[in-house]
Amino acid sequence: MYCYILLCAAAAFASYPPRSPWAAVEAYARRNYFYAGGQYVNTTQTAVNKTAEYMVGQVYVEQLIPFEARYEIPLVFIGGGAQTGTNWLNTPDGREGWASFFLRHGYTVYLAEQAQRGRSPWLPGEGEIIQFPVASIEQQFTAPQDYPSYPQAVNHTQWPGSGRKGDPIFDAFYKTQVPFQVDGMMQAVYNNLSFSALLDNIGPAIVITHSQAGMYGWQLGDARRDLVKAIVALEPAGPPFKGYSGPPFSPEWPPASDKRPFGLTPLPLQYTPPIGANASLLTQQNHTAPTPDLAPCTLQKEPARRLTNLSKIPVLMLTSQASYHTVYDYCTAEYLKQAGVDVEWVHLPDVGIFGNGHFIFMERNNLEIAEFVEPWIAGHARGR
Ligand SMILES: *[C@@H]1O[C@H](CO)[C@@H](O)[C@H](O)[C@H]1NC(C)=O
Ligand SMILES: *[C@@H]1O[C@H](CO)[C@@H](O)[C@H](O)[C@H]1NC(C)=O
Ligand SMILES: *[C@@H]1O[C@H](CO)[C@@H](O)[C@H](O)[C@H]1NC(C)=O
Ligand SMILES: *[C@@H]1O[C@H](CO)[C@@H](O)[C@H](O)[C@H]1NC(C)=O
Ligand SMILES: *[C@@H]1O[C@H](CO)[C@@H](O)[C@H](O)[C@H]1NC(C)=O
Ligand SMILES: *[C@@H]1O[C@H](CO)[C@@H](O)[C@H](O)[C@H]1NC(C)=O
Ligand SMILES: *[C@@H]1O[C@H](CO)[C@@H](O)[C@H](O)[C@H]1NC(C)=O
């Protein structure tokens, strides 16, 4: 999928704006990469029983600068569980991805890989890394309509191809899935430190997260409120406080074990009145499912504490029609509102965008959704 920079530049000048499967690499003029964060530690690699000094937690970041920069504020993309920067470049069926789309629209783009994932090294012995099985990817992401394990799954139509093993587009997608840290706390700590270091290095940015990375977007906004100019959260990890797998999910839906004691994150967020690092000060209240095809969830008890720093950052949150997130994302949006965050939650079918699953930035209509989001981003990106 990649080509040498000179060749790409020649191809790009010949056919700009790009439309071919090479779009992902044709849309930029210059490319750079660097690592952000990382700490030296003395630890043991058990496989060789070698105790020595190593580095942990640093994250790989790829910077792509467009031919014609039209905005001052760059975009930082952070992919969700098992994903890397490649997912934003182009789609598994070789079309233009969101990073390429935004490059073509004049934005500088940073693709950041989470700590201990992809090109961000994992030091063996630092927790454990695991991989999503084929069947989980099919059931949750690419072919939920074939199972279906929640009512809205039947409407999933936008994945390119059958979404099942053996389909060349599924196979291409599955090859991009990489192992990820199973210890959520360790991952949160390293991501928080390294993504903060990234913004300290590059300055103000708009952060675009997907899924599990949603937690790290909130954490980053909390730690670097003056540098995060806006957050676009595509189906961020939810619902508030803890994962959910009860009805309307069917019994074969994987049990949820993820915990977000600070509402949106495993690590402390700044609230007013303050709670410090004591999550039990965040008083919870059960919220009944508004309709039978949605999940019950947990909100704060009123009067709710406000998210001190995050409430200063505009947020656009998107949820698709047929993803499992459609079951509970309403509650994540409600939690943000309750805590004073300036969030605009868009349920895609309400704006006439139908049939998407969880990978809304990769599916057949990914550019239609990018076109929908772009004006909001432009409004926060300081046009030149
Ligand atoms: C690791 O141990 C060595 C030898 O004791 C020491 O010089 C070094 O500062 C230690 N590094 C860290 C990060 O603690
Ligand atoms: C690892 O090395 C230490 C020190 O050389 C030794 O005491 C220990 O038995 C070794 N452990 C294993 C599992 O080989
Ligand atoms: C499927 O989509 C249609 C049209 O958007 C909608 O009316 C219907 O409620 C959806 N079905 C489910 C189970 O969500
Ligand atoms: C997150 O990282 C920032 C910047 O390095 C640090 O100041 C802050 O304490 C960290 N937050 C948590 C909850 O660890
Ligand atoms: C976040 O909020 C805390 C608590 O109000 C405050 O002390 C801190 O300065 C804020 N962080 C930033 C980056 O503004
Ligand atoms: C956390 O807050 C709870 C509820 O007010 C209190 O009982 C507990 O002692 C606090 N824990 C710490 C470590 O401050
Ligand atoms: C919320 O519901 C759970 C079980 O559904 C229950 O265990 C818990 O006590 C309830 N919490 C409150 C604050 O009502």
Automatic annotation (TrEMBL):
InterPro entries: AB_hydrolase_fold, Carboxylesterase_BioH
Cited CDD domains: Esterase_713_like-2
Transmembrane parts of this sequence: none
Protein name listed in UniProt: AB hydrolase-1 domain-containing protein
